[in-house]
Fold this protein.
Amino acid sequence: MIKYIAFFCCFGFTLNSFAQTHSFSDMDAVYMATLKAVVDYKMNDKENIDKIQKLREDEKFNQDLRKKLDKLSNKKSKSGKNKRIYEILKNAGKKIYNEL
């Protein structure tokens, strides 16, 4: 009986400390913000900065990228493609967040 009480106290403490840091509904935002911050940081990496600058100046690449981005939407009701992209980004952010 004491084991169960101790377990539930520890479990409750763990959930409480997690909830104080981030609520479950906020974790998607945490993962997306982490992903963006790391991508921004790594884009300025010495190994990548020249390649990325060349891509920024490449008109064909920019046109193709704009066409691809036009297929996305930030509306609340997302299509299947938007949901899949969102899940990919969220999962990448989650992996990075957990790695850091």
Observations:
- The mean pLDDT is 80.
